[in-house]
Amino acid sequence: MPLSPPVSRQLRHRRAIRAEAYERADGLWDVEACLTDEKPRDVVLASGVRPHGQPIHELWLRITIDRKLNVVDAEASSDWVPYPGLCQASNPAYRALIGLNLFRNFRRDAARLLAGTAGCTHLTELCALLPTVAIQAFAGDVWNINEGAPGASASSERASSSGAGEHSNDKPPFQLGRCHALRFDGEAVQQFYPRWYVRAPYTADRGASSDGAARHEGEGGNASGMNGGDGNEVQSNSQTEGNHA
């Protein structure tokens, strides 16, 4: 359902965040995120007047990952900033993301390495998007999200040939049991994934990640549950939204 009709109001600020994932010719993947801040009027900044139509921020963050979600390269760019020539000094700090894994405490480690004066507040905010964007990109392409039956789709064949054992035929599709709509005893699973209806597997990884997510909900104010204490960042609802293939 759409939001309820708003009361009379006036736009004062717009922040746009977009993210895209690309499969590269060399077999790696690029995940790019961009944050833009604009105001519908001229703005007086400490560095001078920013005319209407020119962004206050336009910030880019790109990571390169392999098929196991390891970060093998990272770079940041600050094209529009409130303090030109000064904000850009933090861009090289984002190479600290190299060596992290999007599935293993990525948000916690990114915050530890880049929070506060170590980096740019808004570029560090973009780090939180990267795990779910990568998962959305891999779903149905690198990872099988169907029933797991042999020959279910070309993408599942690719996943199998790549050695993605987590998505083999004896295990449920990745997204099941990770959000309210896709609970194992729910209508969506009964209708679209009948093989797995009320057959929730209690494996070490799923059980531990559920427990870890509950523990982490109060840690650092991150209620998304993405960072389990065991390092399995797999509990956020947004990870599987739209993966109902």
UniProtKB/TrEMBL annotation:
Its name, as the record gives it, is DUF2889 domain-containing protein
Q: Which InterPro entries match?
A: DUF2889
The organism sits in which domain of life?
Bacteria
Composition skew (Gly residues), residue ranges? 220-231
Where does the record place Polar residues bias?
A: 233-245
The UniProt regions of compositional bias labelled Low complexity, in chain numbering, are: 150-166
- Where is the stretch described as Disordered? 150-173, 205-245
